[in-house]
């Protein structure tokens, strides 16, 4: 019965309401709920998920943009496992008779294998959040790196399993592990790589690569304690590792990846023979080292290990700034910012670090980062991270003291005592100022002002008068020199001349501001005030740059003859490239020495061979069409013809006493390096070139055999 006062609609009214409803807009959808629901969808691929980046897939493409750019296999194992878990959970809730009836997973979630073992309702309720297949077809980044993740407590043996795992393209081959297939998953790395299936062989190879690192790289970058690192690695890989915390996984990876660049192990030799002198094992190790460092947030968390790893990883990579996989300058910047966060730039903080070893490492790392940040910014045309007033820390010096067994002090102590940092830092400050002035947009548009040119030329000459005689190559040699003394002197000498080459290139590219303004206005040349002084300064820069390039070519000849460039960790790479390009633009025949040196360099740095080809093309074009210069083209014709340097210089009259073979060998294998290929070049003047060349065919150091 109808309630009193309530009027029921008549049939005609109901019909009208029905027709009105047809004209009304559809009900509003809660878009915020839809967005939240879409965000909860598990659609990211495994690689993007592990790196916590947006997974962007263009319709019609099989891979997302990240996997496409990195050439990764774009897989969705986590998504499949999660979806399957949700489906199974829903089925379990809907089941009227919760019994032990098997509920198999779909073939898609088995990832290339048959249906997994039956899973009961009870097992579904107790399952982990992700049902990850355990087969070998998982991507390497999922199998070893992130699911479950490698942490700071991961045993070193597991880290080796990740580093020495088969190539990723082999791991993603669904037919690779069929019983009837005889080909090893390591076949792409040469016929010796099958030995990597043995865990004992992996450990032995790790020890070998570690020793190569300490023989070749550590003496140039003394950032680790060799005895401590060796003992901890042996303990970690022993049958009874004990309770001591393992070495940082990314640090282990970095040291071993460095070893693959220079090792003459039969495994690495076979790998290079299969790939035109290039090592695919080394490339894979470098990529995995970088991925591991990223996963462990080495670039985000400031501590001592992460500082060391950042400085070591940077120059481990390709030194070509146009190579997108090189992350050029990224790790150097990260290490520098870590040092700032740790306040090592404050003298008061650095002095209060209680652990002597840690204090020495961090202060040494500071000066490495500080100096290399300046040189890197100048060489590769980017803004330096540090300013002159960002630190007040004193130079860390220590008198070299012989140990109780009579051995020499460490390379770090000797370099500190020799005053290397003071001279290198002085030149680095000039490099930092040049970088901030030369690579500005206004300089690109207007040119370099004459006052700026005078300032830089004067600063370089002041440094030469103040430091070159003290840290450069002297006229009289001491046969008892150790390798640190020898290398630091040769390095400081060469670094000075490379600065002139960089200044010449900028001057040729941008010109002088006063001359550019006069030319644009159409005024006569004589209207420029002090034009004669300006052109004379430009000519002198050209002379200094050409002289520096010839000196670098002479040293490259000596290093190439001894095949030491195969074992050089990017110390002289930039310098040979810069000298080679300048000599090619001048049409100088000495460019052949730089080309040969870069070809030898390509043994460990592939991009060096590409630079050699570019230099050769430039030289051939200049020989056919003339000097390849811009603003300096007219002035270089006034430069006096330099005598052609030979690749076989002879001892000058009144030659010096020869250096002992051990010191000579050590000179080639040791010294200071830099981050990001920005280290100081070991160069010589005419006397020192002749001196080293006289011994260049002597016994090769045993460490290289």
From TrEMBL:
Region entry Disordered, spans: 81-110
One GO BP annotation of this record: nitrogen catabolite activation of transcription from RNA polymerase II promoter
Keyword field contains Cell wall biogenesis/degradation: no
Domain Zn(2)-C6 fungal-type as annotated: residue spans: 44-76
Keywords from the named record: Metal-binding, Nucleus
GO molecular function: DNA binding; DNA-binding transcription factor activity, RNA polymerase II-specific; zinc ion binding
Coiled coil segments of this chain: none
Biased composition (Polar residues): 89-100
Record-linked Pfam families: Fungal_trans, Zn_clus
Keyword Metal-binding: yes
GO cellular component, one term: nucleus
Annotated PROSITE patterns: ZN2_CY6_FUNGAL_1, ZN2_CY6_FUNGAL_2
InterPro entries in the record: Carb_Metab_Trans_Reg, XnlR_reg_dom, Zn2-C6_fun-type_DNA-bd_sf, Zn2Cys6_DnaBD
UniProt-listed PANTHER family: GLUCOSE TRANSPORT TRANSCRIPTION REGULATOR RGT1-RELATED-RELATED, TRANSCRIPTIONAL ACTIVATOR PROTEIN DAL81
Protein name as annotated: Zn(2)-C6 fungal-type domain-containing protein
């Amino acid at each position: 019965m109808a309630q009193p006062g309530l009027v029921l609609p008549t049939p005609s009214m109901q019909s009208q309401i029905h027709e009105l409803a047809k004209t009304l807009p559809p009900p509003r959808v809660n878009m915020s709920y839809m967005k939240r629901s879409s965000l909860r969808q598990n659609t990211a691929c495994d690689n993007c998920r592990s790196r916590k980046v947006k997974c962007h897939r263009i319709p019609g493409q099989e891979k997302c943009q990240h996997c496409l750019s990195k050439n990764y296999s774009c897989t969705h194992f986590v998504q499949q496992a999660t979806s399957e878990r949700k489906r199974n959970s829903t089925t379990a809730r809907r089941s009227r008779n919760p019994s032990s009836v098997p509920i198999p997973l779909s073939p898609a979630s088995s990832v290339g294998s048959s249906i997994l073992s039956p899973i009961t309702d009870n097992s579904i309720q107790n399952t982990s959040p992700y049902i990850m297949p355990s087969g070998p077809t998982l991507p390497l980044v999922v199998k070893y790196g992130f699911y479950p993740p490698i942490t700071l407590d991961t045993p070193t043996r597991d880290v080796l399993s990740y580093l020495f795992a088969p190539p990723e393209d082999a791991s993603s081959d669904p037919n690779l592990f069929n019983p009837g297939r005889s080909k090893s998953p390591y076949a792409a790395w040469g016929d010796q790589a099958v030995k990597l299936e043995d865990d004992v062989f992996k450990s032995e190879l790790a020890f070998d690569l570690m020793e190569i690192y300490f023989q070749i790289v550590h003496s140039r970058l003394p950032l680790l304690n060799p005895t401590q690192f060796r003992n901890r690695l042996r303990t970690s890989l022993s049958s009874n590792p004990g309770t001591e915390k393992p070495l940082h996984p990314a640090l282990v990876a970095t040291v071993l990846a460095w070893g693959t660049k220079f090792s003459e192990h039969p495994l690495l030799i076979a790998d290079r023979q299969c790939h035109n002198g290039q090592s695919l094992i080394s490339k894979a190790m470098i990529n995995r080292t970088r991925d591991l460092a990223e996963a462990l947030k080495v670039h985000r968390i400031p501590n001592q290990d992460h500082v060391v790893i950042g400085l070591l990883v940077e120059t481990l990579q390709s030194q070509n700034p146009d190579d997108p996989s090189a992350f050029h300058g990224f790790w150097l910047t990260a290490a520098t910012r870590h040092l700032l966060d740790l306040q090592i730039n404050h003298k008061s903080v650095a002095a209060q670090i209680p652990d002597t070893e840690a204090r020495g490492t961090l202060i040494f790392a500071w000066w490495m980062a500080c100096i290399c940040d300046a040189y890197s910014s100048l060489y590769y045309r980017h803004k330096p991270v540090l300013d002159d007033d960002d630190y007040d820390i004193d130079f860390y010096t220590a008198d070299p003291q012989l140990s109780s067994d009579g051995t020499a002090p460490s390379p770090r102590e000797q370099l500190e005592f020799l005053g290397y940092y003071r001279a290198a830092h002085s030149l680095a400050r000039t490099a930092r100022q040049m970088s901030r002035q030369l690579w500005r947009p206004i300089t690109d548009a207007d040119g370099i002002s004459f006052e700026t040119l005078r300032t830089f030329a004067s600063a370089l000459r002041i440094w030469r008068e103040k430091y070159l005689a003290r840290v450069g190559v002297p006229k009289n040699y001491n046969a008892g020199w150790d390798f640190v003394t020898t290398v630091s002197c040769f390095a400081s000498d060469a670094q000075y001349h490379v600065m002139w080459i960089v200044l010449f290139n900028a001057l040729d590219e941008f010109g002088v501001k006063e001359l550019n303004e006069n030319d644009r206005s159409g005024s006569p040349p004589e209207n420029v005030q002090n034009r004669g002084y300006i052109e004379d300064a430009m000519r002198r820069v050209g002379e200094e740059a050409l002289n520096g390039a010839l000196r670098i070519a002479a040293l490259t000849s000596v290093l190439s003859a001894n095949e030491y460039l195969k074992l050089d960790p990017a110390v002289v790479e930039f310098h040979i490239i810069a000298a080679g390009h300048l000599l090619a633009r001048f049409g100088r025949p000495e460019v052949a020495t730089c080309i040969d040196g870069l070809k030898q360099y390509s043994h460990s740095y592939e991009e060096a061979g590409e630079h050699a080809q570019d230099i050769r093309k430039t030289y051939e074009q200049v020989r056919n069409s003339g000097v390849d210069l811009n603003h300096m083209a007219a002035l270089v014709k006034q430069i006096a013809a330099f005598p052609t340097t030979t690749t076989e210089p002879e001892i000058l009259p009144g030659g010096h006493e020869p250096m002992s073979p051990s010191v000579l060998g050590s000179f080639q294998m040791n010294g200071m390096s830099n981050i990001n290929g920005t280290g100081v070049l070991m160069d010589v003047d005419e006397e020192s070139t002749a001196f080293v060349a006289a011994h260049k065919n002597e016994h090769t150091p045993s460490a290289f055999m």
